[in-house]
Amino acid sequence: MIYFRIIATAWLPVVALAQSTDPLQKYTISAPGINATFIPYGARLTNLFVNDKKGSPQDVVLGFDNPTDYVLNDETVHTYLGPIVGRYANRIRNGTFTVQGVTSHIPENDNMGHDTLHGGRVGYDQRNWTVVSANTTSVTFFLLDQAFEGFPGNVITFATYTVSAGPTWTSRLVSIPLDEPTPIMLANHVYWNLGAFVDPEGSTILNHTLQMPYASRYIEIDNIEVPTGAIGTVNGTFLDFTSPKQIGRDILSATNNCGYNCTGYDNAFILDRPRYSAPESTDLSMLTLSSESTGIQLDIYTNQQSLQIYTCDNTNGTIAVKASQQHGASTTYVEKYGCMVIETQQWIDAVNHPEWGQDQYQIYTVDSEPAVVFARYDFSILGQ
Question: Are 166 and 157 in contact (CB under 8 A)?
């Protein structure tokens, strides 16, 4: 059912709603073998159930049972649990960029004011999106960005989430600038644990097996995780996941890799598709992740050219997992390495590195194609 209509004005489309939207209302969609729940606050994924090797449904993403806790989290530690981040995901050096001769400054909300993270102080993750369509298998959210946080111009974005037999979750984010040239780079910021906390091994992602067969290069960063401009190769390093490898095998070697005095992964891997594919092709799995605890395997297909991998290096046991993930007599909390974030996106801070040649994938105008982030998450059982 469609809940909105577009009304033309001299300069800006307006969304007229048939009814107001509660930003914390839950919308659940389902298909054989999969069940997902979202809220309009941040167009956020709160639950994702898929069957494990025993046929039991397991919730494989982190979040809260009470939607108000997302607001409280954002007002305090701000961990970006499950939302869309934007208008520009990841980091912008000094919060500054120049597009077609016009310099913009975005609030520096990270590293004591040295860079911008995920769109500024109030990014897309803290915005109340509008539900414009919902049925049993799909939900679509809408956001009108009126130069939020100092980004140039106005942008409209539609986020459509769909589940289907497979089981599969598909995310489509489509953004259109309405007046001024602007960088656009959105991402889903979902915290995963395919072990679903079912046993001690499933309480962290250290025993997860990860493969990114086309991630032979990565973007080098400084000690506050801002790109230096250099491009590194993973061959022979702890960053090499081109072949299947348990995440915990080399993680203790990744010292100062996720910022100063931090051990773990928080890196942007470049996706170099083979020559028979194409830079934005979605025909090949870019990432495979699996857990022996549940037998759940995830394959990600995306049109993006980078994957940001964060292994929850800074979680400290203060956030309890959801009721659906409590499997013991006592409360389980998210410990260090208890989850991982996989962001499908373009090259981080490329807006400040024209030498990388990424402008066509990051700078959009009123007469360019829209910015589209496509990601398909296919679930299966190991060995089946």
Answer: no
Q: Is there a contact between 324 and 47 (Cβ–Cβ < 8 Å)?
A: yes
Question: At 71, which helix (H) or strand (E)?
Answer: helix 68-75
Q: How far apart are CA 103 and CA 98, in angstroms?
A: 4
Fill in the amino acid letter for 24.
L
* DSSP line for 240-293: --SS-EEGGGTGGG-BTSSSTT-BS-EEEEE----TTS-TT--SS-SEEEE-TT
Label residue 263 exposed, middle or buried (CB < 10 Å: 0-12, 13-18, 19+): middle
pLDDT tens digits along 373-382 = 999 999 999 9
Supply the pTM of this predicted model. 0.95
* Catalytic residue IDs: 189, 343
57 φ/ψ angles, rounded to the nearest 5 degrees: -70, 135
The values of phi and psi at residue 150, to 5°, are: 90, 5
Residue in 342, 378, 325 with CA at minimum distance from that of residue 47: 325
Give every residue of the chain whose pLDDT is below 70, as ranges.
1-20
Query: Residue 61: phi, psi to the nearest 5?
Result: -125, 150
Distance CA 384, CA 381 (A): 6
Cα 48 from Cα 320, distance rounded (Å): 17
